[in-house]
Amino acid sequence: MSKASKVTSIRILLSIIIVLLLIFPFYQMGINVATYLYNNIVIDIRYIISGIIFIIVALLDMYDNYIAKKEKTVTIFSNMFDEVAGLLLINSILIILSVNGMISPIIALVIIVRDLIVDRMKFVISCYNKSYKNTLDLAEKIILTIGLAMTLFYNIPFELIGLRISDFLLIVSAVLAVISGIKYYLVIKDFLNENNG
């Protein structure tokens, strides 16, 4: 197994740990989870721990990409599971934060549906042995990652002065996701017209 594949495996494992930490019914099992009151903000320690792990996974994603480019080791495993690792983490957190009322369900829905549609479009493009890099994808991913990390940390310190920076970043990310999806649609529409015409 290549180094990049090992990093991808660690990312998937850490993503599963975050999901379990956030959805496990601790209270129903009689386990009290530590909460703290900080300037009228009730902080659940599970979100802080998840935020720390989330940042580690995001850094591992960057390291994973760096290794793959440096060593030029692209395996079937890393091709399949690199994207799975990212989607597992981001989509799971979007759903959990939405269900818990920490973010708007509209943002979660827009980003998840866009990812599903774009994933299919990428598949169609790859069937023709072509690739397309959308420059908005990276910007959307970075803004979304920062917005989710800030949400897991309760938007502190900005929350203390009434600035909802985390919400703003998530809205920007959703808008970029829609624009990026439209760009993919236009590319695949032209591409299929060329190949079917």
Fraction in helix: over 70%
User: What is the helix/strand order?
Assistant: HEEHHHHH
Q: Helical region count? A: 6
Overall tally of structural domains: 2
> What's the shape?
globular
Low-confidence stretches: none
Please give the largest β-sheet. 2 strands, antiparallel
| Global structural class | mainly alpha
- The whole-angstrom Rg is 19 Å
Kindly, what is the distance between the CA atoms of the first and last residues, rounded to a whole number of angstroms? 43 Å
Q: Could you tell me the mean pLDDT?
A: 88
Report on the structure:
This protein has helices at 3-23, 45-71, 76-99, 105-127, 135-152, 165-196, and strands at 35-38, 41-44. With 197 residues, it is mostly helical. The protein folds into 2 domains: 1-93; 103-197, no CATH class. The chain has a two-stranded antiparallel sheet. The protein starts with a helix and ends with a helix.
Short description:
The chain has 197 residues and is mainly alpha-helical. The protein has two domains: 93 residues; 95 residues, no CATH class.
Give the topology, please.
Elements: H1 3-23, E1 35-38, E2 41-44, H2 45-71, H3 76-99, H4 105-127, H5 135-152, H6 165-196
Antiparallel strand pairs: 1-2
Which structural traits does this protein have?
mainly alpha; 6 helices; 74% helix; globular
